[in-house]
Design a protein that fits this description.
Blueprint lengths: L6 H17 L2 H21 L7 E4 L8 H8 L4 E3 L3 H9 L5 E7 L8 E8 L3 H22 L7 E8 L6 H31 L2 H5 L6 H31 L7 H28 L6 H15 L14 H4 L3 H15 L7 H21 L4
Parallel strand pairs: 1-2, 1-3, 4-5
Antiparallel strand pairs: 3-4
Length: about 375
Amino acid sequence: MSQPYSQFQAMLAIAKASLISIFRSPSAVIFGFLFPLIFILVFGFLSSTAPVIRIAFDKSSDSHNPLYETLVAKKNLKVLVQSEKVTKEELEKGRITAVLNIQPVNPQGYPKYKVGIKSSTAAVDRIGLLQSIIQQSITELDRKIDPNRPVYAFTELTQIPGREYRTIDFILPGQLGFSLLSAGVFGVAFIFFNLRQTLVLKRFFATPIRRSYIIFGEGLGRIIFQLITAVVILLIGHFAFKFTLIHGWVTFLELMVLSLLGLLVFMGFGFIVSGLATTESTIPPFANLVTLPQFLLAGTFFPVENFPAWLQPLCRILPLTHLNEAMRNIAFEGDHLSDCGSQIGYLLIWGIVLYAIAIKVFRWE
């Protein structure tokens, strides 16, 4: 007696064949594995910490004196104005180098002021440079006011424990996100276009397998390949360059779930491009129209805050921006998936819109 036809087994067979073909494709391996790894290696070797000198002033600091005005005017210092809670958190994480507190100690004589420098062990590589800048400012005031008198002010450094924020903690999530975007757009677009052009999809119609299982099978092969890529990127980043996984394996698993969600959303772009493309040569322009703006504007290499104010709203519309932000919050900030509701919500909205369009434009023949 013949066995009943299994749609599920047929789907797995298609997924297996698709996965094998992806691994045999040089372009898939290069864009999926090598490009993200090259960027990670470059930035991992270039520097282990962020070099920006960002400071804040204590709310009790005296701001009506020449030293304060001199420091604020320094081009290589970025003075942040924010709440004490945010400042304390960023100080512990090394995102700001120090909190300065200028207090008068001898209004009638010299030195007139004491500069309290509160830093953390996470900013140990930058504190020396900051001290040099402050000392240079004091020396400038000494020469300007009276070079024969004692120093205008002196410094006092205190340090608190902190977590080191490395360049890799910013770069790796961006590279992983862009790898998922490229795979979802280019991979899906080329696969389904070629299956349609080579009449493979038409031959599938002669078999008992349903059309939905054909898509699931091909998509599953792409998902498995890209999740393997994500595992490799995360493990190399963590063990070779100390990429932060704040809660260990829990953080790793949450990043994998987020990667899966991002990939599923980005595959929607791929289905749309596949449906709109009339020839294979038209796929790259359509795909680059989707991927290039996100590569440049979604915080892959630089924080979105570094862009002009008029451009930032556009940056925050892009789905890759929210994926990158959620990954960084989970990896370094210690957030969980439940804390990334707004970012996940944006991705889900994008997914609904993309697949609604994909259903309209996708073609089988």
